[in-house]
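[Discussion] Sanity-checking designs against the backbone

I'm trying to build intuition for which residues belong where. Below is a structure token string of 155 positions. I'd appreciate it if someone posts a full sequence so I can compare it with mine line by line.
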């Protein structure tokens, strides 16, 4: 599972969430931000209203919480969702061992702005998330930002 910090960076970069069964999320409020919830028809269900989407907590006795606005929820996309969002830019996922402490390191390669770029993480989802963040940031950058970064701009 990706970190809250990476999930927040993806959200702030413009990643839009359309809640579906099986999606994990946190409520972005200090008093409950350590808990992870899962959208499920049994316990947490997304309700579409003309004014926006709310996440309803059905029969949840341990919480004095009936619902939360989607804007107050922070999506924690799964590995498969992140890979799907990379679409045709995704090239490979590799697992290696860190030479210093023998912990696994995951590397995702993606083609961004015509170049193959590597992104690493402590798990596959984290590496995918970093690649997606770079892709979103590049796609939302203005031509001036791209030129400053040395990325050719194609109108």
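Best answer:
Here's mine. Compare freely.
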């Amino acid at each position: 599972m990706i970190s809250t910090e990476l999930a927040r960076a993806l959200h702030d970069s413009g990643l839009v969430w359309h809640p579906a069964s099986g999606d994990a999320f946190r409520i972005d409020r200090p008093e409950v931000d350590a808990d992870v919830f899962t959208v499920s028809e049994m316990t947490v269900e997304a309700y579409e209203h003309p004014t926006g989407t709310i996440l309803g907590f059905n029969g949840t006795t341990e919480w004095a919480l009936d619902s939360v606005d989607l804007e107050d929820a922070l999506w924690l996309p799964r590995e498969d969702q992140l890979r799907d969002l990379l679409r045709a830019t995704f090239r490979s996922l590799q697992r290696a061992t860190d030479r210093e402490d023998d912990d696994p390191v995951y590397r995702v390669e993606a083609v961004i702005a015509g170049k193959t770029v590597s992104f690493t993480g402590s798990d596959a989802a984290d590496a995918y998330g970093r690649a997606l963040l770079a892709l979103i940031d590049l796609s939302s950058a203005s031509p001036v930002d791209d030129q400053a970064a040395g990325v050719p701009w194609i109108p």
